[in-house]
Amino acid sequence: MVTWIALAALAQLISAGIVLVDKYVLVSHAHLGRPVVYAFYISVMSGFVLVLLPFGVISIPSLTVLALAMLASVTFILSVLFLYTALKRGNASDAIPVVGAVSAVVAAGLAYVFLDQDLPRAFIPAFLLLVVGTVLISHFKFTWNSLGLVVASGIFFGGSAILIKLIFLETSFIDGFFWSRMTNVIGALFLVAIPANRRAIFHGYHASSHGMKWLVVSNKTLGGVAAFLTLLAISIGSVTIVNAMAGLQFVFLLSFAYFGARWFPSVFKGEIHPHQFTHQAYGILCIVAGIAALFLV
């Protein structure tokens, strides 16, 4: 149990840094800073799993695995689109805890329905703690539109995690990992098939500097590492617990923002609110307590 929890925690640590870089690109560089462009790059870079083919470790998937992988990719791409649209409009420290809380609750509920996993005994108080923590952290700064975006992102993230777990129950980790990544590439091709998206994607690529391209590619490579660690944790552990641990990302995010604001004000501006620190501190405690209740009680 310690192993997959450690893997999930490391994945959230990496993801926190990735989100802040993403926020910087989304706000500061209009050419690459469109949610659909980011969703395309995240999806198409999943094709790195093709390096596994020469080793002959991949088998032909069953129709069930292929259908689950396609559905997981659709929900994942939608979650990314909603998340990055919300990040473009507001602060990561406001959006991420809401996405994490909603995702944790959705994953727990879907695991109960589709994986025959009993709901944690502390599900209701954990749910209430996550909601209260989210409200305290977000400080009522969301518009209804922005709130809808982050809630939708959390719902699709939670759904994607359950679908990935179902894939791993049907096949081996390597096969499940390969086909769940390759269907992301297919999803990227559907994105680029839409003329407006295609113009935005290619314009963003050609109009951006060489350094910015490398920043995005490097950041998405780290994203691939975080995704691999998360999927590995899901394959050997509880998808409900792994998904609930997304709340750790906010703790790491706020820590990075606090210590990095002095050196990188353009990146971290707006993430730290001194006059709201008390609310945020109580919000963190509520979220951590809610997540702990999901799998410790």
Give short descriptive properties of this protein.
79% helix; EmrE-like; single chain; mainly alpha; transmembrane helix; transmembrane; 0% strand; 297 residues; globular; EamA domain-containing protein
Describe it.
- The chain has 13 helices and no strands.
- It has helices spanning 2-28, 35-44, 63-89, 92-114, 123-138, 144-170, 173-193, 195-207, 210-236, 239-244, 247-260, 265-268, 277-296.
- It has one domain.
- The longest helix has 27 residues, at 2-28.
- It has 297 residues and is an all-alpha fold.
- End-to-end separation in angstroms reads 16 Å
Helix content: over 70%
Judging from the principal axes of the Cα atoms, what is the shape? globular
Q: What structural class do you assign from the helix and strand content?
A: mainly alpha
The tally of helices reads: 13
Cα-based radius of gyration, to the nearest Å: 19 Å
Give the total of domains.
Answer: 1
Q: Tell me the major beta sheet.
A: none
Number of strands: 0
Q: What is the residue-mean pLDDT, rounded to a whole number?
A: 77
Contiguous runs where pLDDT drops below 50 for at least 5 residues:
none
- The secondary-structure element order is HHHHHHHHHHHHH
Strand content bin: under 5%
Protein name: EamA domain-containing protein
Organism: Candidatus Kaiserbacteria bacterium RIFCSPHIGHO2_02_FULL_55_20
Transmembrane segments: 37-58, 65-84, 96-115, 122-140, 146-169, 176-194, 214-234, 279-296
Keywords: Membrane, Transmembrane, Transmembrane helix
